[in-house]
Structure formats: structure tokens, C-alpha cells
């Protein structure tokens, strides 16, 4: 799937076996993700959305953000085979498509990536607000739903730069304003700044603030309205996972942008290393779509109970379950 073609003629013979081993390992990992990670990501993300939407009254502020990330995860999981096996890979592609389809898929993946990172950053900020001001309504589930709507709108506006560069590549001969917008490196630089640096700094700032009051024990900690302690562990795991898996992808975009702006030709050995890093970072980025719902499944204390209630409700069907059976199950729980 991935070859050492870009290195031919530039690397020594002693580098070829090592290159082939790296690309073979990357091919195996990519195929494993496509065979296992994509179905798991689609199934668990869809299950996360279904359970929360069927129990909207029991949704808390973190649940709304995780539903938002699950919807973006479904899109990323669906686009993973196209990006990992399509013409954007460094090796041979199993299929090809027009430039219009390529830009459309690129915009969809950028929007989903932005929604994922910004939802993670806003989740950490709202968790700090809930911790510092437990009785405020600023971090309620009702307000969070509206915030998630703004996140999707902002992601669409930010991804508009990709469409703008594509349009200018076709009308540059007739519009002088597009003469400086014929390179995708500028769009990559915008994505690095807005898509990763800004939300990463916001999440880091929120974690620093949370660390200062994490061990403070106040009477408000015993309020029933406060978040479950497992939500804090889930927050840390989600922030570290999301930004850790997306960091190589944005670092690769940043490296390609810097090389292009400095006027260095990207060929030979640098091209092979860059293409290999790009493929590996893309694989790590797409794998985040299946890791996050698994974290939510095994760390959240409320999700297993709501999942059992949903299964019980679906099992009963149109016939309502008897009150005695429901009461016995509540006592068993």
C-alpha cells in the first residue's frame, strides 16, 4: 500500500530495508484500523448518540459535548477509508475521484476535526466553571446544546478557506485578487493555528485552573448537582487522547507549510519522510474517532445504566414492562 518510491535515487541501499519495514508496519496498522477501528468507531459513536438522545432528560453538560464529538466521530470514521486508501496517500490508491470530490471530502474532514478539538476544549472550560461555580447555569446541558450549534457553524466558516483556495485555483487567470491564493500551504497554516493551537491552549489553561482547585474539599462537593468524580477522570483522558492523537497531523501540516514558505524544494529524502509522516499522522488522527467513545463507555459511571435501560425498553417493545419488573430491576441496580 505504501512504497519507498519517493526515496529511490536519493537514499542509499542500506536505507531501503529499513524504509520497507516502516512502510510495511504502517500498512498493517492501517489495515487493522480499517478492519477493526472503523466498525468499532461507527458502532460506539452511534450507540453513544442513541443512548443520550433517548434519555435527553438525564443528559448532563459533558454528555452533550460527547454526543457532539460522537457525531463528528461518525463522519471521521466514514471518511477514514477514503483518506487512507484514496489518492491522498503516498502510495498507490485503490480509487480516484475528481478535484471537486476531493475538496468536499477535505472540507468534511476539516469540519469534523475542528468540532472534535473545540468540543474537547470547551468541555474542559465548562468543567472548570462547574467546579468553581457549582450552582451556576452557565455550564448547563441546555446552554451546551446551543454552544455545540455554534461550534458546528464556526467549523464550517473556518473550513471555507479550503473552498476559497480551490475557487481561486480555477479563476486566478481572471481575478487578480486570487494571485496570492494559489497555494494550499496558507490554508494548512490557518488550520494549524485555528484548528489546534487555539483549542490546545484553551484546554491547557482549563486543566491548569482545574489542577489548582482539584484537591479543594468544600461543602459544595456534596451537592447532588455536582459532576460525578468519574467525569473529571474522563475529562483528563479525553483531552490527553484527542490532542495527543491530533498533534502529529498538525505538526506535519506545519512542517510542510514552513518548507514551502522558505522556498525549499520538497523532493528526495525530505519528500519521503514527509509523506511517511503524513500517512502515519493521518492514521493516528482518524483513530481518535474510535478511542473517545471507548473512553466514554468504560469511564463514565452513568452510561452503562442508561444503556441497560435502553436495551430493556427496546426489549419490551410496544408492550410496556410491568411495574413490578421495573421495581425489581431498580432494587437489583
Automatic annotation (TrEMBL):
It is a multi-pass membrane protein. The gene is GPR146. One of its GO terms (cellular component) is plasma membrane. SUPFAM superfamilies: Family A G protein-coupled receptor-like (SSF81321). One of its GO terms (molecular function) is G protein-coupled receptor activity. This is G-protein coupled receptors family 1 profile domain-containing protein. PANTHER family: G-PROTEIN COUPLED RECEPTOR 146-RELATED, G-PROTEIN COUPLED RECEPTOR 182 AND ESTROGEN RECEPTOR 1. Residues 44-296 form the G-protein coupled receptors family 1 profile domain. It comes from the Eukaryota. The chain crosses the membrane at residues 31-53, 65-85, 105-129, 150-173, 193-214. Its main location: membrane. Keywords: Cell membrane, G-protein coupled receptor, Membrane, Receptor, Transducer, Transmembrane, Transmembrane helix. It is found in: Cell membrane. It comes from Suricata suricatta (Meerkat).
Amino acid at each position: 500500500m505504501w512504497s519507498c518510491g519517493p526515496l529511490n535515487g536519493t537514499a542509499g541501499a542500506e536505507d531501503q530495508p529499513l524504509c520497507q519495514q516502516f512502510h510495511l508496519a504502517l500498512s498493517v496498522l492501517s489495515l487493522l484500523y480499517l478492519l477493526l477501528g472503523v466498525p468499532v468507531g461507527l458502532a460506539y459513536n452511534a450507540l453513544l448518540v442513541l443512548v443520550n438522545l433517548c434519555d435527553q432528560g438525564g443528559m448532563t453538560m459533558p454528555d452533550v459535548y460527547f454526543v457532539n464529538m460522537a457525531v463528528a466521530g461518525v463522519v471521521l470514521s466514514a471518511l477514514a477509508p477514503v483518506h487512507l486508501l484514496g489518492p491522498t496517500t503516498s502510495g498507490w490508491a485503490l480509487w480516484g475521484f475528481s478535484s471537486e470530490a476531493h475538496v468536499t471530502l477535505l472540507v468534511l474532514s476539516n469540519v469534523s476535526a475542528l468540532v472534535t478539538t473545540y468540543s474537547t476544549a470547551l468541555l474542559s472550560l465548562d468543567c472548570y466553571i462547574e467546579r468553581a461555580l457549582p450552582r451556576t447555569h452557565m455550564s448547563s446541558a441546555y446552554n451546551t446544546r446551543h454552544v455545540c450549534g455554534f461550534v458546528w457553524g464556526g467549523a464550517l466558516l473556518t473550513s471555507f478557506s479550503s473552498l476559497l483556495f480551490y475557487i481561486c485555483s480555477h479563476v486566478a487567470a481572471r481575478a487578480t485578487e486570487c494571485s496570492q491564493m494559489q497555494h494550499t500551504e496558507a490554508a494548512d497554516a490557518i488550520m494549524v493555528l485555528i484548528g489546534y493551537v487555539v483549542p490546545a491552549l484553551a484546554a491547557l489553561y482549563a486543566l491548569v485552573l482545574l489542577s489548582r482547585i482539584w484537591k479543594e474539599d468544600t461543602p459544595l462537593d456534596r451537592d447532588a448537582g455536582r459532576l460525578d468524580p468519574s467525569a473529571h477522570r474522563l475529562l483528563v483522558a479525553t483531552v490527553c487522547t484527542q490532542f495527543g492523537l491530533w498533534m502529529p497531523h498538525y505538526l506535519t501540516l506545519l512542517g510542510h507549510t514552513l518548507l514551502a514558505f522558505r522556498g525549499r524544494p520538497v523532493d528526495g529524502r525530505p519528500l519521503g519522510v514527509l509523506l511517511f509522516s503524513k500517512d502515519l499522522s493521518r492514521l493516528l488522527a482518524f483513530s481518535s474517532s474510535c478511542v473517545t467513545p471507548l473512553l466514554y463507555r468504560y469511564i463514565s459511571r452513568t452510561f452503562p445504566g442508561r444503556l441497560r435501560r435502553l436495551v430493556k425498553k427496546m426489549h419490551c417493545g410496544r408492550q410496556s414492562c410491568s411495574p413490578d419488573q421495573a421495581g425489581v430491576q431498580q432494587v437489583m441496580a
